Amino acid sequence: MEALLKDLMFDIFLLTCLVGGVGGLLFVLIGMRAYGVYISYFSGDSLLSNQFQRSALRLSNENKTSELKGLSQTRVTSCPGDSWGHYYLALALYREKSYVKAREHYRQVAQLQPSMKGWADQSIEEINQILASQKPAIV
Exposure string (b/e) for 35-54, b if CB count within 10 Å is 16 or more? Predict the structure, then answer.
């Protein structure tokens, strides 16, 4: 946050110093830069998120579960608030029959992204049914 404020303060300083000579063009350039800083700060790393989603979708479609799990674990570690990271990790865990862990990540999806809550709740219900139908392990 401090770096963001320093960047914006520097841009404002440049604007006030150079307004007379370059005027409108400088104002537009600084505005574009400030908007870019704002977007990158508040939307996370949207370009990396899009790249992750494309890669995860490809791995999912190709049934490369272990690669999908690794990619998604890395994404969730670096961006714990990324609902798509949790979704694809839950999907990989589900495919590996790690139902309890998958359910945890589906719950994260429902919490982080209300628009995905329906999918997540449906998957959680399915996992609950699977777990309820399993016989207790013999010790």
Answer: eebeeeeeeeeeeebeebbe
- The 10s digit of each residue's pLDDT in 12-59 is 655 555 555 545 544 444 554 554 444 444 445 555 678 999 999 999
Count of Cβ atoms closer than 10 Å to residue 82 Cβ: 24
What's the pLDDT at 3? 55
Is the pTM higher than 0.85?
Answer: no
> H/E/C letters for each residue in 67-120?
HHHHHHHHHHHHCCCCHHHHHHHHHHHHHCCCHHHHHHHHHHHHHHCHHHHHHH
**First-residue to last-residue Cα distance in the chain:** 53
